[in-house]
Design brief:
five-stranded antiparallel beta sheet; rod-shaped; 12 strands; Heat Shock Protein 90; binds adenosine-5'-diphosphate
Length: 452
């Protein structure tokens, strides 16, 4: 059973991991799709602003073209080197003015978005008399080749468009053609937030479905483990009761056989001794059956005969009776309350308190202290012992029916696992609570809280 549960947990965990991975993959794919969609939207919107961004300000564009022309001609005349041309283009004087113009245009046309941009030069190639091109400048898009724009890096930017321009000219009777290529990159500020906002429904739904799955899984496994524990506990109970019944039944069997012998019947002393044994074993069987019967009632089926009782007196009478039965046990009292009148069922509570006290003795205690106090407007009775204690991981089922800490067939102490269940039922029937503080080897403290 345990192996099957472990196997089931293993499979479920793997299934959960696979499902979560698929879910994450789907969310990631949706995210990528949304990013691509967003880029396309921005490209279209920028495209609509102007079919050719370079015509944003024809004066500035013509300035740029004039600069290209001037530099080209100086290059052809040998007055400028390739490096001079490159620097001349990239450090032109209309840089700031054009950047500002385009920025303004974006602000006006797309007021909901904050857009940074850069136009970077990729190619500057000169063709003279249709000869092979003279590559003055050709590079992949880099931010350091920025013609104008306010972007500081291309890291989070995306390509909006490439602009290829050709200019024809004549110099010293020689025709030349200039091929330029530049690209516009834009970055929308807080674009991640915009995308996440668009994905809110998808994210919430997938998170909810994963959380629901995990919760269902945890609930199912917990129910399964609890079922297994209850099953184990029931098997233990059957073992315990069989064990408890065997001794009196065997004694009764032997006793009846002995009684069948005439010699025994004729001897009064022997006869009485056997009859006493039969009666004792009979009582023991009766007690066992009573215990099981008494515990077959649920807390709301217990009929209490409540009366007003001075609780400290009531506890002292139990203490005194207990001292007579267990003279070797050091039973102390530490009452922080006096003359507290509570409405209690004397009979059932006596049995419950005796169960706790007898357990203390049964599980190795030599000194027991009973304390009373008022805790948060409730009357607290605590039973503290110095016995073997109860491991923390065994405490959750302690008040369950038939539960015993010693499991399987290894029983050093006799019991049916009904004592604490009974205590719990009776205290609950008084609308009270019972709790335990303990650890292995550190004694045990049972705290019963009753309404004042
Ligand atoms: P049982 O018939 O086994 O005594 P109980 O319901 O009275 O059944 O107690 C349940 C289990 O709690 C016991 O099997 C025992 O292991 C543990 N237990 C109860 N009281 C004490 C105690 N005072 N000290 C240590 N263990 C205790």
């Amino acid at each position: 059973m345990k192996q099957r549960i472990n196997l089931l947990i293993g499979f479920s965990v793997v299934a959960l991991i696979v499902l979560s991975t698929v879910q994450c993959y789907l969310v990631k794919t949706t995210y990528d799709y949304k990013v691509a969609q967003f880029h396309t939207e921005i490209k279209n919107e920028i495209g609509q602003i102007s079919n050719n961004y370079s015509d944003i300000d024809s004066v500035l564009v013509s300035k740029k073209e004039a600069l290209y022309k001037d530099l080209t001609q100086k290059y052809i005349q040998g007055k400028k080197t390739k490096t001079d041309i490159k620097n001349g283009i990239l450090e032109n004087d209309f840089q700031d003015a054009l950047t500002l113009r385009i920025q303004r245009k974006f602000e006006r046309e797309l007021p909901n978005l904050k857009i940074d941009f850069a136009i970077v030069l990729n190619k500057f190639i000169l063709y003279k008399n249709t000869k092979k091109g003279d590559t003055i400048f050709s590079q992949k898009p880099f931010i350091r080749n920025k013609l104008y724009g306010n972007l500081a890096s291309l890291d989070h930017a995306f390509l909006v468009r490439n602009y290829v321009g050709t200019t024809n000219g004549t110099l010293e009777n020689e025709n030349y053609q200039l091929l330029t290529e530049d690209s516009m990159y834009v970055s929308v500020i807080d674009w991640e937030k915009i995308i996440l906002r668009r994905m809110t429904v998808v994210l919430i739904l997938s998170l909810c479905s994963i959380l629901t799955l995990i919760s269902l899984f945890v609930l199912a496994i917990r129910a399964l483990i609890r079922l297994k524990k209850v099953n184990d506990v029931k098997t233990d109970f059957i073992n315990n009761i069989t064990h408890e019944l065997k001794t009196p039944l065997a004694t009764l069997g032997i006793s009846t056989k002995i009684l069948a012998e005439k010699s025994i019947r004729d001897n009064d002393e022997n006869f009485n001794s056997i009859v006493n044994t039969i009666s004792r074993q009979n009582n023991r069987l009766q007690n066992l059956i009573d215990q099981v019967m008494a515990n077959s009632l649920a807390e709301n089926e217990i009929e209490l005969q409540k009366e007003k009782i001075e609780t400290e007196d009531f506890l002292l009478s139990i203490v005194n009776d207990f001292k007579i039965t267990f003279p070797k046990i050091n039973l102390k009292t530490d009452f922080k309350t006096s003359k507290t009148i509570l409405t209690l069922d004397r009979f059932h509570l006596t049995t419950a308190f005796l169960n706790v006290l007898e357990n203390a003795v049964k599980y190795g205690s030599k000194t027991i202290t009973i304390k009373t106090s008022i805790v948060e407007n409730q009357f607290s009775i605590s039973f503290e012992d110095d016995g073997i204690g109860i491991a923390k991981n065994k405490q959750s089922l302690l008040f369950d029916k038939f539960y015993r800490v010693e499991q399987g067939n290894l029983h050093n102490t006799k019991g049916l696992g009904l004592g604490l269940y009974y205590v719990d039922q009776i205290v609950k029937a008084h609308q009270g609570t019972v709790s335990v503080i303990s650890d292995l080897g550190k004694g045990t403290q049972f705290i019963i809280l009753l309404k004042v």
